[in-house]
Automatic annotation (TrEMBL):
Protein name in the entry: (apollo) hypothetical protein
Species of origin: Parnassius apollo (Apollo butterfly)
């Protein structure tokens, strides 16, 4: 009834459906190939980013697993290092374009660029970038500083627990 109202035959619908299926099959194959290529690109980007040294956050170390690149590194520098790394290590593989690299970096990995804190202690700053003479002198001081920091944190935590349990109001 439907075919008669438009004055078309069964063969016309069958041919249309077959052509449509061929087009869909090709597009699905293209998507599968693109996904496989994207997976290889993602792996190469992750390998490159994991090869760069990172450091922990100074103050929120206990509460986060976020890692930071050193402060001199920026995203454009990081991407140019990736291109050099790919040319050297995997010249035949497809390189990620900058937008793919940016998407993988920000969505897949828990790493950011380091932003120096204004309130970071002087001893910690000196220990991060010491000269040879300073390194010998500050190693002992830094170890003492870190031990004191742990003790002070423990005292602070004990005071918090005591304040919660205490029924006195300030």
């Amino acid at each position: 009834m439907f075919l008669d109202s438009f004055n078309i035959t069964d063969m016309w619908i069958t041919t249309l459906f077959k052509k449509w299926m061929k087009i869909m099959k090709k597009s699905l194959q293209t998507i599968a190939i693109a996904n496989a290529r994207n997976e290889n690109i993602k792996i190469s980007v992750c390998q490159h980013i994991n090869s760069i040294p990172v450091k922990e956050s100074h103050y929120v170390r206990q509460r986060t697993s976020k890692l930071y690149f050193e402060e001199s590194l920026t995203f454009p520098k990081l991407y140019s290092l990736y291109i050099e790394w790919m040319t050297k290590n995997n010249p035949s593989d497809t390189k990620a374009i900058q937008e793919q690299y940016r998407r993988i970096f920000y969505k897949e990995l828990n790493i950011e660029f380091f932003k120096p804190k204004k309130d970071q202690s002087l001893k910690c700053e000196v220990h991060e970038k010491p000269s040879e003479l300073e390194k010998e002198i500050t190693t002992r001081d830094y170890a003492l500083h870190m031990a004191n920091k742990c003790i002070i944190r423990q005292i602070k935590d004990n005071d918090k627990v005591e304040a919660k349990q205490s029924k006195k109001n300030c």
